[in-house]
């Protein structure tokens, strides 16, 4: 009888155990969490902003390489527009707080030299156990120093000086000088080192440079315009000049090509299609793709140290057909399998022989007249171009490319001027709540639509007392010229009221809101950094209380920031 009872209990146990297996299998198969499980988290830190021409190409390459279930976030140092100790310190503080407030990342990808140097400087503090993959680093010597560094690998951007110079020398064998346009930025210094190391391979050419960082804008233009056929002109980098002007690659290329009397070769893709003849160029998209593939290997379990550093950057030959025609260069003079931009079948192409005959007849008949008036016309044209370019670039360097609002640099200058004049005013700092969800769910194009629409609404508030600026990403700020906190708060409420109007994205309505922090000068800070930090702390207080509100800075804001730091949520 005892035996039967034992068998009965054993059978009951087996039945219950089998039922548990069936139920657990069913739950596992239908678990929505399993379908939504991510394959990893990757953070891309760029030295520049999204508006810099090469950055979208790098981001597209990284995104293409990573699986769909990998979360890819972005942070921008924006050193082209704001490169001061204060802005670098602000970025350091913001990334430190961001890393504390978000979930851990599995891989950090850094783009170009400034982000690479930042990651190496703060690796132990900010990224102690996170693999770092770099790409676009021009300082090959510094990159090779970390080849055997723990948790670091990447792609060195070795520019194609040798092949481009060799081709230019073949096209212009009478040239005796090679003149490069460079600047003193971190990337420029690395490029300069590689440029002069190439000189020993071309003994027939005297290597020189035009250093934009030490020239006024007028001096830069005059030096370029004075070059003749005895020189080969090579564009490498021009993002600043000695007067403090900051240039995008497109604006600097247009300025230089407008006055150059000889063709311009290049080793970077930015200016091809805007006046540069061409050369062997670095593919930033492919370089980003290679870095993304390295990150994917790490996500799949590979040790970072086992992934070899890539020292040969992907390159391709590319030329502008407009410039080829201008300088009478045909495809037979160029390497095979080249890419050509601005290619168009036009009247000149179809009737090139007839046009050349007519052209030379006109040249012969007008030669005497041209000799007499050429110098006068050239002088007038150059002076007019100088003034026009100077005015255009001075104005363009003050604006954010995407939103057309004044940029971070102008905000810093305007705030510092008011502080120097002992004026009383308010600082407004805001960002869009849950903006990341828009980028992740609808894509960065729709995110850009939101930022442009928000900027348009902020512009409507601009008056003699209120001026809006874009800092970076979805962060906006404003200066309110009033010592009355009620007036400052009234503008903040106007901004909040503007959010009642929905944003139209892909024919759907999206209602959004923002968190706004306010600080007053001189009560809440005696420097721009202190005022921004106070407004930032007030904004965190708003976010801590549920987002979508407005708060002035007070001592309780510091307590909120402290508690968030202590709890690891900041």
By helix and strand content, what is the structural category?
Answer: alpha/beta
User: How many structural domains can be distinguished in the coordinates?
Assistant: 4
CATH class of the largest domain: Alpha Beta
Count of DSSP strands = 19
Describe, in plain words, how this protein is organized in 3D.
This protein has 4 domains: 40-157 and 287-306, Response regulator (Rossmann fold, 3-Layer(aba) Sandwich), CATH 3.40.50; 161-285 and 315-347, Response regulator (Rossmann fold); 348-396; 408-567, Reverse transcriptase/Diguanylate cyclase domain (Alpha-Beta Plaits, 2-Layer Sandwich). Residues 1-35 have low confidence and may be disordered. The longest helix has 45 residues, at 352-396. The chain has a 5-stranded parallel sheet, with helices on both faces. The chain is of the alpha/beta class and 570 residues long. Helices cover 49% and strands 18% of the residues.
Reconstruct the topology from this structure.
Blueprint: H1 2-30, H2 32-35, E1 40-46, H3 54-65, E2 70-76, H4 85-101, E3 107-111, H5 112-121, H6 123-126, E4 132-137, H7 140-145, E5 152-156, H8 161-171, E6 177-182, H9 186-197, E7 206-211, H10 217-225, E8 231-235, H11 249-259, E9 264-266, E10 278-282, H12 284-299, E11 315-320, H13 321-326, E12 339-341, H14 347-350, H15 352-396, H16 408-420, E13 425-432, H17 435-442, H18 444-459, E14 466-472, E15 475-480, H19 485-498, E16 503-505, E17 508-510, E18 514-521, H20 528-544, E19 550-552, H21 555-567
Parallel strand pairs: 1-2, 1-3, 3-4, 4-5, 6-7, 6-8, 8-9, 11-12, 18-19
Antiparallel strand pairs: 10-11, 13-15, 13-18, 14-15, 16-17
Helix pairs in contact: 3-12, 11-15, 17-18, 20-21
């Amino acid at each position: 009888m005892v035996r039967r009872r034992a068998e009965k209990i054993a059978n009951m146990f087996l039945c219950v155990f089998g039922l548990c297996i069936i139920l657990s299998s069913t739950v596992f198969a239908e678990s929505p969490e399993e379908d939504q499980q991510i394959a990893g988290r990757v953070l891309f830190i760029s030295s520049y902003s999204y508006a810099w021409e090469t950055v979208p190409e790098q981001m597209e390459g990284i995104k293409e390489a990573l699986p769909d279930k990998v979360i890819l976030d972005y942070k921008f140092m924006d050193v082209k527009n704001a490169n001061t100790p204060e802005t670098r310190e602000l970025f350091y503080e913001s990334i430190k707080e961001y890393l504390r407030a978000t979930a851990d990342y599995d891989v950090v990808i850094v783009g170009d030299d400034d982000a690479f140097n930042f990651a190496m400087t703060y690796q132990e503090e900010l990224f102690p156990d996170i693999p770092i993959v770099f790409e676009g680093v021009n300082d090959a010597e510094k990159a090779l120093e970390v080849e055997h560094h723990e948790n670091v690998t990447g792609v060195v951007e070795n520019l194609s000086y040798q092949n481009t110079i060799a081709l230019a020398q073949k096209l212009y064998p009478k040239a005796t000088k090679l003149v490069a346009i460079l600047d003193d930025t971190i990337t420029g210094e690395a490029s300069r080192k590689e440029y002069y190391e190439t000189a020993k391979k071309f003994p027939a050419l005297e290597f020189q440079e035009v250093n934009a960082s030490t020239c006024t804008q007028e001096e830069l233009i005059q030096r370029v315009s004075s070059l003749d056929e005895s020189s080969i002109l090579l564009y490498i980098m021009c993002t600043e000049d000695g007067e403090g002007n900051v240039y995008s690659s497109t604006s600097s290329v247009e300025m230089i090509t407008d006055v150059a009397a000889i063709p311009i070769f290049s080793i970077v893709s930015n200016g091809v299609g805007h006046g540069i003849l061409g050369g062997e160029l670095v593919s930033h998209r492919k370089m980003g793709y290679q870095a993304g593939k390295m990150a994917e290997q790490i996500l799949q379990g590979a040790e970072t140290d086992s992934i070899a550093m890539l020292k040969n950057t992907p390159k391709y030959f590319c030329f502008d057909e407009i410039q080829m025609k201008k300088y009478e260069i045909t495809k037979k003079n160029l390497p095979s399998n080249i890419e050509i931009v601005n290619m168009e079948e036009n009247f000149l192409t179809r009737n090139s022989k007839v046009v050349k005959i007519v052209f030379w007849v006109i040249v012969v008949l007008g030669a005497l007249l041209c000799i007499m008036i050429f110098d006068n016309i050239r002088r007038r044209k150059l002076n007019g171009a100088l003034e026009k370019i100077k005015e255009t670039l001075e104005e363009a360097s003050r604006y954010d490319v995407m939103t057309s609002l004044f940029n971070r640099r102008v905000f810093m200058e305007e705030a510092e001027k008011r502080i120097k004049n002992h004026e009383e005013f308010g600082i407004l700092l805001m960002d869009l709540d849950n903006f990341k969800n828009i980028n992740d769910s609808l894509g960065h194009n729709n995110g850009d639509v939101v930022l442009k629409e928000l900027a348009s609404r902020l512009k409507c508030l601009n008056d003699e007392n209120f001026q809006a600026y874009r800092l970076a990403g979805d962060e906006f700020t404003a200066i309110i010229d009033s010592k009355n906190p009620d007036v400052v708060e009234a503008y903040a409420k106007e901004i909040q009221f503007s959010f009642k109007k929905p944003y139209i994205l892909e024919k759907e309505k999206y209602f959004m809101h923002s968190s706004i922090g306010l600080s007053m000068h001189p009560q809440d800070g005696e420097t721009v950094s202190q005022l921004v930090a106070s407004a930032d702390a007030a904004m965190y207080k708003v976010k801590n209380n549920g987002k979508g509100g407005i708060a002035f800075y007070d001592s309780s804001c510091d307590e909120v920031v402290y508690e968030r730091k202590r709890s690891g949520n900041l």
